[in-house]
Amino acid sequence: MTTTVDQFTVRHDGVTIPVSRGGEGRPLVLCPGLASTQAELHELIEMLRRDFDVVTFDLRGHGLSSAADQYSFEVFLGDFVAVMAELRRHGLPSAPVLAGHSYGADLVVHYADENPDNVGELGVIDGANPIPAPFITETDLPELRVVWENLATHLETVRGTARQVLLTGQEILDLNLELDVIRSGITVEIDVVGSGIIDRYRTIDHPVRMIMSTSMAGDSGEGRVPRHNRLWRAGIDRLLHERPDISLSLLDAGHGLVVTHVKEVAQIIRSAHTSFDQAGS
Question: Where are the alpha helices (DSSP H) in the chain?
Protein backbone atom coordinates (compact mmCIF):
# COMPACT_ATOMS: atom_id res chain seq x y z
CA MET A 1 0.00 0.00 0.00
CA THR A 2 1.40 3.38 -1.05
CA THR A 3 1.07 6.25 1.39
CA THR A 4 0.12 9.63 -0.02
CA VAL A 5 2.53 12.25 1.30
CA ASP A 6 1.62 15.94 1.34
CA GLN A 7 4.33 18.60 1.26
CA PHE A 8 4.29 22.18 2.46
CA THR A 9 6.97 24.74 3.25
CA VAL A 10 7.46 26.78 6.41
CA ARG A 11 9.39 30.03 6.12
CA HIS A 12 10.77 31.34 9.36
CA ASP A 13 13.66 33.57 10.41
CA GLY A 14 15.20 33.58 6.95
CA VAL A 15 15.13 29.80 6.42
CA THR A 16 12.83 27.52 4.44
CA ILE A 17 11.74 24.26 6.03
CA PRO A 18 9.97 21.71 3.80
CA VAL A 19 7.53 19.60 5.81
CA SER A 20 6.19 16.14 4.87
CA ARG A 21 2.91 14.66 6.10
CA GLY A 22 1.46 11.24 5.41
CA GLY A 23 -0.15 8.22 7.00
CA GLU A 24 -3.33 7.25 8.81
CA GLY A 25 -4.35 7.70 12.42
CA ARG A 26 -3.54 10.11 15.17
CA PRO A 27 -1.09 12.90 14.23
CA LEU A 28 2.52 12.35 15.26
CA VAL A 29 5.28 14.92 14.75
CA LEU A 30 8.75 13.39 14.48
CA CYS A 31 11.77 15.65 14.98
CA PRO A 32 15.20 14.37 13.85
CA GLY A 33 18.33 15.02 15.86
CA LEU A 34 21.42 17.09 15.24
CA ALA A 35 23.36 16.00 12.12
CA SER A 36 20.42 13.75 11.21
CA THR A 37 17.71 14.14 8.57
CA GLN A 38 14.28 12.80 7.77
CA ALA A 39 15.89 10.92 4.86
CA GLU A 40 18.06 9.06 7.37
CA LEU A 41 14.92 8.21 9.37
CA HIS A 42 13.00 7.11 6.27
CA GLU A 43 12.46 3.52 7.42
CA LEU A 44 11.14 4.56 10.84
CA ILE A 45 8.88 7.20 9.29
CA GLU A 46 7.37 4.70 6.85
CA MET A 47 6.75 2.20 9.62
CA LEU A 48 5.05 4.79 11.84
CA ARG A 49 2.83 5.90 8.95
CA ARG A 50 1.01 2.57 9.22
CA ASP A 51 -0.51 3.75 12.51
CA PHE A 52 -0.06 7.54 12.58
CA ASP A 53 -0.52 10.63 10.47
CA VAL A 54 3.21 11.40 10.56
CA VAL A 55 4.61 14.89 10.14
CA THR A 56 8.35 15.32 9.80
CA PHE A 57 10.85 17.92 8.62
CA ASP A 58 14.54 18.79 8.63
CA LEU A 59 16.24 21.15 11.03
CA ARG A 60 17.73 24.30 9.49
CA GLY A 61 20.97 23.48 7.70
CA HIS A 62 19.93 19.83 7.43
CA GLY A 63 18.52 17.80 4.57
CA LEU A 64 16.01 19.73 2.47
CA SER A 65 15.93 22.80 4.74
CA SER A 66 18.03 25.81 3.87
CA ALA A 67 21.22 26.90 5.60
CA ALA A 68 21.25 29.71 8.15
CA ASP A 69 23.57 32.37 9.52
CA GLN A 70 23.29 31.03 13.05
CA TYR A 71 22.60 27.78 14.84
CA SER A 72 21.59 27.47 18.47
CA PHE A 73 19.04 25.64 20.55
CA GLU A 74 16.91 28.77 20.69
CA VAL A 75 16.73 29.19 16.91
CA PHE A 76 16.08 25.47 16.32
CA LEU A 77 13.27 25.66 18.87
CA GLY A 78 11.90 28.73 17.10
CA ASP A 79 11.80 26.79 13.84
CA PHE A 80 9.96 23.94 15.58
CA VAL A 81 7.40 26.40 16.96
CA ALA A 82 6.89 27.76 13.43
CA VAL A 83 6.40 24.26 12.01
CA MET A 84 3.84 23.46 14.71
CA ALA A 85 1.98 26.73 14.09
CA GLU A 86 1.75 26.03 10.34
CA LEU A 87 0.64 22.47 11.03
CA ARG A 88 -2.23 23.72 13.18
CA ARG A 89 -3.26 26.03 10.33
CA HIS A 90 -3.43 22.97 8.07
CA GLY A 91 -5.74 21.33 10.58
CA LEU A 92 -5.31 18.61 13.19
CA PRO A 93 -8.07 16.32 14.46
CA SER A 94 -6.40 16.07 17.88
CA ALA A 95 -3.34 17.17 19.80
CA PRO A 96 -0.37 15.33 18.27
CA VAL A 97 2.09 12.93 19.74
CA LEU A 98 5.48 14.69 19.71
CA ALA A 99 8.45 12.40 19.21
CA GLY A 100 12.09 13.37 18.85
CA HIS A 101 15.42 11.62 18.67
CA SER A 102 18.53 12.93 20.45
CA TYR A 103 18.62 16.74 20.00
CA GLY A 104 15.11 16.52 18.58
CA ALA A 105 13.90 15.01 21.86
CA ASP A 106 15.14 18.06 23.74
CA LEU A 107 13.29 20.31 21.30
CA VAL A 108 9.96 18.52 21.77
CA VAL A 109 10.31 18.51 25.57
CA HIS A 110 10.94 22.27 25.62
CA TYR A 111 8.07 22.87 23.20
CA ALA A 112 5.69 20.75 25.27
CA ASP A 113 6.58 22.64 28.43
CA GLU A 114 5.94 26.00 26.77
CA ASN A 115 2.89 24.96 24.69
CA PRO A 116 0.98 22.39 26.78
CA ASP A 117 -2.31 22.83 24.93
CA ASN A 118 -0.74 21.80 21.62
CA VAL A 119 0.58 18.43 22.80
CA GLY A 120 -1.03 15.07 23.47
CA GLU A 121 1.82 12.74 24.39
CA LEU A 122 5.61 12.79 24.28
CA GLY A 123 7.99 10.22 22.83
CA VAL A 124 11.56 10.86 23.97
CA ILE A 125 14.05 8.77 21.98
CA ASP A 126 17.57 8.72 23.44
CA GLY A 127 17.67 12.42 24.21
CA ALA A 128 16.40 15.11 26.61
CA ASN A 129 18.22 13.33 29.42
CA PRO A 130 18.88 15.31 32.64
CA ILE A 131 22.46 14.11 32.99
CA PRO A 132 24.02 15.06 36.35
CA ALA A 133 27.22 16.46 34.78
CA PRO A 134 28.24 17.63 31.29
CA PHE A 135 29.52 15.03 28.85
CA ILE A 136 32.19 17.33 27.46
CA THR A 137 34.98 18.40 29.81
CA GLU A 138 37.86 20.80 29.11
CA THR A 139 40.23 17.90 28.53
CA ASP A 140 37.87 16.41 25.94
CA LEU A 141 37.71 19.51 23.74
CA PRO A 142 40.84 19.02 21.56
CA GLU A 143 39.91 15.46 20.66
CA LEU A 144 36.25 16.28 20.10
CA ARG A 145 37.13 19.13 17.76
CA VAL A 146 38.89 16.57 15.60
CA VAL A 147 35.94 14.17 15.84
CA TRP A 148 33.40 16.76 14.72
CA GLU A 149 35.67 18.12 11.98
CA ASN A 150 36.02 14.58 10.65
CA LEU A 151 32.24 14.19 10.75
CA ALA A 152 31.79 17.46 8.85
CA THR A 153 34.30 16.26 6.25
CA HIS A 154 32.39 12.99 5.89
CA LEU A 155 29.11 14.86 5.51
CA GLU A 156 30.55 16.71 2.52
CA THR A 157 30.16 13.43 0.61
CA VAL A 158 26.36 13.77 0.76
CA ARG A 159 26.16 17.47 -0.11
CA GLY A 160 23.34 18.19 -2.51
CA THR A 161 21.24 15.25 -1.31
CA ALA A 162 18.36 14.88 1.15
CA ARG A 163 20.90 13.63 3.71
CA GLN A 164 23.13 16.70 3.66
CA VAL A 165 24.17 18.61 6.78
CA LEU A 166 25.62 22.05 6.12
CA LEU A 167 27.01 22.80 9.58
CA THR A 168 30.73 22.97 10.24
CA GLY A 169 32.48 20.77 12.77
CA GLN A 170 32.89 23.75 15.10
CA GLU A 171 29.18 24.57 14.88
CA ILE A 172 28.26 20.99 15.75
CA LEU A 173 30.69 21.03 18.69
CA ASP A 174 29.31 24.36 19.96
CA LEU A 175 25.76 23.01 19.78
CA ASN A 176 26.77 19.95 21.80
CA LEU A 177 28.43 22.16 24.42
CA GLU A 178 25.25 24.22 24.65
CA LEU A 179 23.15 21.07 24.90
CA ASP A 180 25.29 19.81 27.79
CA VAL A 181 24.31 22.93 29.73
CA ILE A 182 20.64 22.65 28.78
CA ARG A 183 20.48 19.05 29.96
CA SER A 184 22.64 19.20 33.08
CA GLY A 185 22.23 22.84 34.11
CA ILE A 186 26.01 23.03 34.64
CA THR A 187 28.57 25.19 32.85
CA VAL A 188 31.98 23.82 33.75
CA GLU A 189 34.04 26.79 32.60
CA ILE A 190 32.39 29.35 34.86
CA ASP A 191 30.90 26.97 37.42
CA VAL A 192 27.30 28.04 36.90
CA VAL A 193 24.84 25.50 38.27
CA GLY A 194 21.13 25.40 37.49
CA SER A 195 18.46 22.75 37.24
CA GLY A 196 18.64 22.05 33.52
CA ILE A 197 16.01 20.18 31.54
CA ILE A 198 14.68 18.34 34.58
CA ASP A 199 12.75 21.51 35.45
CA ARG A 200 10.88 21.12 32.17
CA TYR A 201 9.81 17.59 33.04
CA ARG A 202 8.58 18.76 36.44
CA THR A 203 5.97 21.02 34.84
CA ILE A 204 4.93 18.85 31.87
CA ASP A 205 1.58 17.25 32.56
CA HIS A 206 1.43 14.85 29.62
CA PRO A 207 2.15 11.15 29.28
CA VAL A 208 5.82 10.60 28.47
CA ARG A 209 7.35 7.48 26.95
CA MET A 210 11.15 7.27 26.95
CA ILE A 211 13.00 4.94 24.60
CA MET A 212 16.62 4.94 25.70
CA SER A 213 19.75 3.06 24.66
CA THR A 214 21.87 1.04 27.06
CA SER A 215 25.09 2.05 25.25
CA MET A 216 24.50 5.63 24.20
CA ALA A 217 28.22 6.29 23.69
CA GLY A 218 29.05 2.84 22.29
CA ASP A 219 30.21 -0.43 23.82
CA SER A 220 33.93 0.28 24.18
CA GLY A 221 35.46 0.06 27.63
CA GLU A 222 38.03 2.73 26.85
CA GLY A 223 38.31 6.51 26.73
CA ARG A 224 35.22 8.64 27.40
CA VAL A 225 32.75 5.87 26.56
CA PRO A 226 32.28 4.29 30.03
CA ARG A 227 31.87 7.69 31.68
CA HIS A 228 29.33 8.84 29.10
CA ASN A 229 27.31 5.65 29.42
CA ARG A 230 27.32 5.98 33.23
CA LEU A 231 26.16 9.61 32.97
CA TRP A 232 23.41 8.59 30.54
CA ARG A 233 22.07 5.95 32.91
CA ALA A 234 22.40 8.31 35.89
CA GLY A 235 20.33 10.90 34.03
CA ILE A 236 17.61 8.34 33.34
CA ASP A 237 17.55 7.29 36.99
CA ARG A 238 17.43 10.92 38.10
CA LEU A 239 14.43 11.60 35.88
CA LEU A 240 12.53 8.50 36.95
CA HIS A 241 13.08 9.48 40.58
CA GLU A 242 11.44 12.84 39.85
CA ARG A 243 8.78 11.45 37.50
CA PRO A 244 8.09 7.79 38.32
CA ASP A 245 5.05 7.95 36.05
CA ILE A 246 7.26 8.16 32.95
CA SER A 247 7.27 4.91 30.97
CA LEU A 248 10.80 3.74 30.16
CA SER A 249 11.88 1.25 27.50
CA LEU A 250 15.58 0.38 27.42
CA LEU A 251 16.95 -1.03 24.18
CA ASP A 252 20.22 -2.93 24.00
CA ALA A 253 21.52 -0.52 21.39
CA GLY A 254 23.65 2.53 20.73
CA HIS A 255 22.56 6.11 20.07
CA GLY A 256 21.66 5.28 16.46
CA LEU A 257 18.76 3.08 17.56
CA VAL A 258 16.34 4.94 15.26
CA VAL A 259 18.26 3.36 12.37
CA THR A 260 19.55 0.11 13.87
CA HIS A 261 16.43 -0.87 15.84
CA VAL A 262 13.62 0.58 13.74
CA LYS A 263 11.06 -2.15 14.35
CA GLU A 264 11.54 -2.06 18.10
CA VAL A 265 11.29 1.74 18.28
CA ALA A 266 8.16 1.81 16.12
CA GLN A 267 6.51 -0.93 18.16
CA ILE A 268 7.20 0.85 21.45
CA ILE A 269 5.73 4.10 20.12
CA ARG A 270 2.72 2.20 18.82
CA SER A 271 2.13 0.32 22.06
CA ALA A 272 2.65 3.44 24.16
CA HIS A 273 0.00 5.27 22.17
CA THR A 274 -2.41 2.36 22.65
CA SER A 275 -1.78 2.10 26.40
CA PHE A 276 -2.13 5.85 26.91
CA ASP A 277 -5.42 5.83 24.99
CA GLN A 278 -6.73 2.96 27.13
CA ALA A 279 -5.67 4.71 30.32
CA GLY A 280 -7.57 7.81 29.31
CA SER A 281 -10.74 6.00 28.24
Answer: 42-48, 73-90, 103-114, 141-155, 169-184, 198-203, 225-242, 257-260, 262-280
Q: Determine, yes or no, domain membership for 137.
A: no
3-class DSSP assignment, residue 281? coil
What pTM does this model have?
0.95
Which domain range does residue 10 map to? 5-131+197-280
Please report, in tens digits, the pLDDT of each residue of the chain (281 residues total): 567 999 999 999 999 999 999 999 999 999 999 999 999 999 999 999 999 999 999 999 999 999 999 999 999 999 999 999 999 999 899 999 999 999 999 999 999 999 999 999 999 999 999 999 999 999 889 989 999 999 999 999 999 999 999 999 999 999 999 999 999 998 755 445 567 999 999 999 999 999 999 999 999 999 889 999 999 999 999 999 999 999 999 999 999 999 999 999 999 999 976 665 555 54
The CATH number covering residue 243 comes to 3.40.50.1820
